[in-house]
C-alpha cells in the first residue's frame, strides 16, 4: 500500500494491491472518491503544486500518473523491474522510484 498527502488540498491518497486509488478528505477523514487503476499498486507520491499523483505499479513495471483534479489516469512511465517505493523532489521536479535492482529517476515537469 502506498500513501501520500496533498497538504494544499488536505487530501490523502491511498493506493492498494487490488489496483484502487482511494481519496480521503483530510478534514473529515471520509472517503470521497476511488479510481480503478492496475493491480498491485505499491508506492505513491503527490506533487501538490502540479496536482499529480505518481503511483508504482509493481506488476506492470510502470508509474501510473493520475490528475488530482479529475482523479483519472493521464499517463504511464515504464520503469525497471519491480517499482516500489517513491519519493518526489518538488524543487527539481524529479520522482525517484526504488526498483528490484536500481533507482529510476523520472522528470515530472509538466
Low-confidence stretches: none
Gross morphology:
globular
Tell me the fraction of residues in β-strands, as a range: over 45%
Contiguous helical run count: 0
Helix and strand sequence: EEEEEEEEEEE
What is the distance, rounded to the nearest whole angstrom, between the alpha carbons of the first and last residues?
26 Å
Question: How is the largest sheet built, in terms of strand order?
Answer: 1-2-3-4
In total, the number of strands is 11
- Could you say which structural class the secondary elements and strand pairing correspond to? mainly beta
Q: How many whole angstroms does the radius of gyration measure?
A: 13 Å
What does the largest sheet look like? Answer: 4 strands, antiparallel
Helical percent range?
A: under 10%
What is the average of the pLDDT values? 94
Descriptive notes:
It is a single chain. The protein has 110 residues and is mostly beta strands. Helices cover 0% and strands 57% of the residues. The strands form 3 sheets. A 4-stranded antiparallel sheet has the order 1-2-3-4, with no helix packed on it. A hairpin with a 4-residue loop joins strand 6 and strand 7. The N and C termini lie far apart (26 Å).
SSE layout and pairings?
Blueprint: E1 2-6, E2 11-15, E3 20-25, E4 30-36, E5 41-47, E6 52-57, E7 62-67, E8 72-78, E9 86-89, E10 94-98, E11 103-107
Antiparallel strand pairs: 1-2, 2-3, 3-4, 5-6, 6-7, 7-8, 9-10, 10-11
Amino acid at each position: 500500500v502506498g500513501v501520500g498527502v496533498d497538504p494544499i488540498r488536505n487530501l490523502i491518497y491511498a493506493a492498494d494491491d487490488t489496483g484502487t486509488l482511494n481519496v480521503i478528505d483530510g478534514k473529515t477523514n471520509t472517503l470521497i472518491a476511488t479510481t480503478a487503476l492496475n493491480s498491485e499498486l505499491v508506492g505513491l507520491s503527490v506533487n501538490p503544486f502540479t496536482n499529480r499523483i505518481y503511483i508504482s505499479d509493481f506488476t506492470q513495471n510502470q508509474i501510473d500518473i493520475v490528475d488530482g483534479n479529475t482523479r483519472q489516469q493521464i499517463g504511464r512511465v515504464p520503469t525497471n523491474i519491480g517499482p516500489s517505493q517513491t519519493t518526489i523532489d518538488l524543487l527539481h521536479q524529479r520522482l525517484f522510484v526504488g526498483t528490484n535492482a536500481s533507482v529510476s529517476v523520472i522528470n515530472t515537469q509538466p
